[in-house]
Structures are given as structure tokens and as C-alpha cells.
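To whoever picks this up:

The parser on our side crashed when reading a file containing two proteins. I've narrowed it down to the boundary between the first structure block and the second sequence. Both blocks are reproduced below exactly, byte for byte. First block:
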Amino acid sequence: MKIAVLGCGAIGSLFLGYLSGMGQKVVGVVKEYQKDALLNEGLTIESKEGSVTVKVKADTVLREKVDLAIFATKINDLEEVIKANKQALEGAFILTTQNGLAAENILGEYFPKEKIITGIVMFGATFYPPNKVVHNFGNKLIIGDVFSDSEEVNQEILLPLSDVFEVVKINNIKGAKYLKLFINLNNCLPAIIGKSMQDTYSDLELAKLAIRLNQEAYSLVDKCNIQIQSLPNYPKERLQGFVSMPLNEAASLLSQTMANLSKEPLYGSILQSIKRERRSEIDYINGEVVKLAENNNFQAPLNKKIVQMVHAVEDRKEFFSKEDLLSQTEEVMNYER
């Protein structure tokens, strides 16, 4: 089977490195600045098992047709990458790995829906350009069919993925994507102040703010009668507990959880994009909460403010202080009261 990994940042590099290490026929579609380093030096993966450098194939575009295309770009870049490689992607199975809720709709404009497999990555990584990635935690890849809510996915396609990840098939992948959205909601605050997840959430005031963001989003999802689906090792009841328990207790639990995720600093997908001076996926994470509110005549003022602040960081290339973040979000909450 010929496999392509389109976009080799944090998550894409793990797919490329692990599949290459297992002897699969895989090529990474990468940025120009990555190509020579990957071809000449290989891809270095650091994890709790140690450090390994893997020989990989990489190019800036696909030169021949593939059987499976793993899209690991940020959702903002999906259409550009599709158009640049469309001929080589004809007939291929398509696996999404993007955060947020919109990837399948974008891909569905270019590929047959029966060829699209929804993926939810339940592992974390940090990319150090041009050719190093740290595998921080986790090894599960959740898959399903967002267009039919079926567990039926081509078994041949899953075989190479199952060699390197723990692949779990579920139906109601739409509901699972909503639960993953809540997990990703916490990426926004480190992006605003420019600190790691661990440093950010060791501060209980910031942990409280994260809980409030989740509470606002959960209330909205509940009003819209969206059925959230549990993920392996992350039952929906955990989220329900977070948003319903006393604020101080929830913040303390969140702080402990983040501190124990990884010994290496975790920066989250949004901050990693900002550090590389690229537009982040905030519109497809907290922005999805804002969009859901607007489409159903509700309000999500706190998440809306957070989206605005992340864009401000992107535009001015300067982080906010913790004090500015708390002050501006407190103004929103006071106004709502």
C-alpha cells in the first residue's frame, strides 16, 4: 500500500516516522524548509522509550498516486494542500486527523464521501522544526464514518495504522468529535500568554477560566441537543463532572491532570502554530462554539472573547500577560451578569 502523510508537523511527523519505521511505503508531503533535513538527516522521534532517528521519504508535492492519504495539516491549510496534490489523490482513501468539526465537510467537496475516514488522535506531540518531534503521550487513533455513523471501515486500510497505533472503531464519531472539541478548548489559554500547558494550568486562576470556557460550551451543546459520545479513556461523564462540580474543585483537578500529561513541555496546537508565525486553528475550536451559538440564536461571549484575543496575538505577534487575560475575560463575565 502506498501511503502519503500530508503535513508533517507534530501529528503528521509521528505518522510519517512510525509508519516508515515499520517498513511501510510512505512519503511525507512537507514544507520546503523541511525537505532537505528530512531526506539527509532523517526524522528524530523522542518519546518515553527514548530517541530514534528514522529514514523517511519526503517531498513538497506528491509525484505519484497513493492508496491512503493521511491529512495531518492544520484545517486552515486543507484546501491548499488538496488542490496542490489532487491528481495523485484520485481514488485514494482519505483519513482526517484535524481538530474541530469542519474537516470532513471540506474534504467532502473534493472526494467521494465513502472514501473519507474520520480520525480522532488521542495522542499529543510537539514539533521542533525542521525534523524533530517529541511524542508526549497517548497512542490511540479513533476512527469512524462521520457521514453514515457506521463502524464499517475498510480493513485493509487499517492494517498499517494498527501496526503503530491502537486503532479503535466507533460509531457516532460526530459525538466523539464534540467531546474531542472540549479537550482542545484548553489549548487557547497557553496560546494567549505564550506558556506551556503545564505552566498555564499550574495557575488555579487560569484553570478556573478554562473551566468557565468549558461550562459555557457545554451549556450550549446541551441546549442544542447534541449527543456527546465517550472516547476511550475519556468517558463523557468526566466532562460532565468537570462542568458541574464546584469551580475550585474542578480547577484543582484540571491543574493536576495537565501537570501529569507529560514530563516534556506541552504547548498545544494553537500555540505551536503561533510560534511558527502561522495562523492557528482557533476558529475551528473555540470558534466552533461561537458559530454554534450564533447559528442557534444563543450567545457564547467568553469563547468569543478568547477567539478575539488569540487573533490579536497572531496579528501583533505579542502575547498577553496573565493579568490582561484575566482582566479582559472578567469584563465579559461581569457584563453577562
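<<boundary where parser fails>>
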Amino acid sequence: MAEIEKTFVVEKFCPVCEKNFRVVKTRSRLMVLQRDDDACVHYENFNPYFYTVWVCEHCGFAADESTFTKKIPDRHLTILRAVLLTKNIKIPFVEERTLENASTAFRLALKYQELIRGKASKRAKYAHQLAWIYREAGDKTQEAEFLAKAADFYEEALMRESFPIGELTDNAVVYLVAAIYNRLGDRKKATSFLSRLISDQGVREREPRIYDKARDLWSDMRARKK
């Protein structure tokens, strides 16, 4: 199956410029090849993360599906419209994204979250998934840069936001931060975050899956050290 057959095009409404724009969505039935310890999933001959961020071809607003489909606060729309509608930004629509197309979409989404002082958890998600895109492309420098950004944003979210956020619990975020620091080669920070999970009996009882993942990562780290 060609990559283009794994996607389809639909029209959606942009809350910023109030026009309909085209979106590429991915089909749900994809062959999973591998899951990394920081939740990145690798698929056969396709990378759905390329299409996680939608971009309005008329005004250039970029965000994930949930942002487009939920009501954006008026104060945020005022900020976004002041920037986007005065600069006549247009992003050409492409049905099959390249690495450059995908990275541009994520960078725009991060920029707009910065403009509106969006939640750290949302910025962490964008930075983390952009790191995954660079991982598959083999760009270790860019991957490390955005993994570090993701870790910073996740830590900020843990301090400032209430969990769960969607299906993401605070313990799941602690594990992700540990996995990221491990990938960045910072064993001290990775161990610090893992110990918070492993030493907490409540995590073992309430979220055994997270506890087991933390134990597995801890064991892998110790094995590599030996």
C-alpha cells in the first residue's frame, strides 16, 4: 500500500480566519513495528506523526485536532488574529508531507502556543512528537534538541497543571521525563524521576503498567551501566 493510500483529505473549519481548509487525516489501521520507551510508535512504511498538526492553508494557524475542534478562548483568538490575519500568511496545502512540511507544521504550532502562553503540556506534546519525527529521519541533533524541550515542558506541566490531562496522568508524565533523560544520556535525572515512581507504593497499586515500565527502564539502565 502506498503511503498516500494511508491518508484521506477532509475539510475542516478554522476558528482563526473562519474559513474551511483541507486536512490530511490518517487511517487507523496501520502496522506497528516497534514501540520506544518514551511512547514513540514506529509503523510500517509510514509515519502518522507527520500529520498530527493541522495547518490552515489560508491563515497559517497550526495546532492539533483537539485545538481546532474545541472552542478557543476569545483572548487567544484576539492574539492569534492580530498576528496571522495582518500578515497574510499562507501555507500551501500538500497531501503527502515531507520531513520539511511536517517539521514546519510542528514549529508553527509551538510558536503559536508560545504567543498565547499555552499550556506546557500541549507544548511538551508538540516538542516530543517533533523529536520522534527527527528520530525516524535519523537526525540525532534535532531529535535531542526537541527531546530536551519536551522534558522541560513536561516538568513545567507537572508543577503547574492538574492531571489527568486526557488519558495522561502525572505518573505517566514522570515516566516520560525519565525515559527522555535516559535517551539524552542524563542518567542522574532519569534515575531521579524513576525513583519517584518505583518508591511509591501507590503507583504500584493504582497504575501497575506505569510502575512496571519504570522498573523495566530502571533494569535496562543498570544493565547498560554494567
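After patching the parser it read the second block fine. Residues 140-160 form the longest helix (21 residues). The CA atoms of residues 88 and 203 lie 50 Å apart.
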